[in-house]
Specification:
Aminopeptidase, 32% helix, seven-stranded mixed sheet, globular, single chain, three-stranded antiparallel sheet, alpha+beta
Length: 391
């Protein structure tokens, strides 16, 4: 019962737009364009034509984003050795998504990183493998003298909150969250990227929404529908069962507005809980990549400019000592590559202390394979860990 009508009224499931032609093949977008879309943007640099155009587009992003070198440069193996440039071998990037809603100035401090994705690009450069880490994963959160944090254990999404408290800010949150993920996975990173909820919505709006496929009927704990079919944001506590006026997302494929697509990617009231949420988030990223690399955006400088401005203002990056322009340009040659979502624990719940989620031996082996750039061989032996997401 979600809506894309301008008057905000609900449309019945039977009047949803058609899903498109089955079996239709579309050209793959370059992986480097997809990769930046995962960060919340797309840098269509060299492929846009002239060097002048490429420089102009890069400036739209770099003029607005915030950077730091204090996270991966802090030592302890968290940052990969790069020598000031992206390596020719495997590249590992960490994405942290924050549900701040009101933006950094009002609510950035104390936020939890509710989306944690390790982006592994193998040395072969033929795919991007997306390893989602459940936000409730039980982890050791390391002590940090600079942040005046004595260490703790619990849900991994709390690491960002602990690091950002006091004077730590977003850099402290990024630092502690990255250390926690590194300690859990053994992976050293070539870059860390933060994007907040509000920024993601700005990027989706700049894209004009995306096409999404709902694979099971689900309800929203954030939006409700009144007697006239008007949708509004729900007040009060997050319910555990659907209220009588709940907003439902019906099965089927259709074009979604920015807020709809973002809300769908956050739903977790289903049989598989947070694993369905991870899968829907990865589906949204793929849909954004597809829309951002479509001719309607590529050939429209005004749309492209707005998209990149929204992306830049939404991002916070530690490029691990690589100049930011070189960091982005270093990804542009990854053509004809594939996005491959991967689920930890094979999509099943592993019990851990305090109601958190554990990490299976199989998932520990998955992380080790990614750290050693042997993920392809591992997945051949563990095919159930890949996700056939709806797109």
């Amino acid at each position: 019962m979600a809506t894309d009508r301008p008057d905000g009224r609900l449309r019945s499931a039977g009047t949803s737009p058609a899903a498109g032609r089955d079996g239709e093949k579309r050209p793959r977008a370059p992986l480097w364009a997809k990769l930046i879309t995962v960060f919340g943007a797309v840098l269509l640099l060299a492929s846009t034509g002239t060097a002048v155009a490429a420089t102009y587009l890069l400036g739209k992003v770099t003029d607005n984003l915030q950077t730091t070198d204090s996270v991966l440069g802090a030592g302890g193996g968290v940052g990969a050795q790069t020598g000031g440039k992206l390596p020719d071998g495997a590249v590992n990037l960490l994405m942290l998504g924050l549900d701040t809603r009101a933006g950094w100035e009002k609510s950035g401090l104390g936020s939890r990183s509710d989306t944690i994705i390790v982006l592994h690009i193998p040395a072969s450069r033929d795919k991007m493998q997306m390893l989602s880490i459940p936000r409730d994963t039980y982890a050791q959160i390391p002590a940090d003298e600079e942040l005046h944090f004595g260490g703790s254990s619990g849900r991994i999404n709390g690491a960002f909150m602990y690091g950002s408290q006091g004077t730590g800010g977003w850099k402290g949150g990024m630092k502690l969250a990255t250390k926690a993920v590194h300690d859990l996975t053994g992976i050293s990173f070539n870059g860390v990227v933060i994007i907040d909820f509000a920024g993601f919505k700005d990027i989706l709006e700049a894209l004009g929404g995306v096409r999404m496929c709902v694979d099971q009927r689900m309800w929203s704990s954030h939006y409700v529908v009144d007697g006239k079919g008007k949708i509004s944001y729900a007040k009060g506590a997050d319910p555990t069962s659907p209220p009588s006026n709940a907003l439902w997302f019906e099965k089927g494929c259709r074009d979604m507005k920015a807020w709809e697509a973002l809300e769908y990617s956050r739903l977790r009231h289903s049989a598989n809980g947070d694993y369905d949420r991870q899968r829907h988030q990865q589906q949204l990223l793929k849909a954004m990549a597809k829309k951002a690399t479509s001719n309607g955006v590529l050939t429209n400088m005004s749309k492209l400019s707005k998209l990149l401005e929204a992306a830049g203002s939404s991002l916070k990056i530690d490029p691990n000592g690589v100049p930011i322009a070189d960091f982005f340009f270093g990804l542009k040659g990854l053509a004809n590559a594939e996005m491959m979502p991967i689920r930890s624990n094979g999509g099943t719940y592993v019990k851990a202390p305090g109601g958190a989620e554990g990490t299976s031996d199989e998932t520990k082996a998955l992380f080790a394979a990614a750290a050693a750039d042997k993920l392809d061989a591992f997945l051949l032996d563990h095919p159930k860990m890949t996700i056939n997401s709806t797109s």
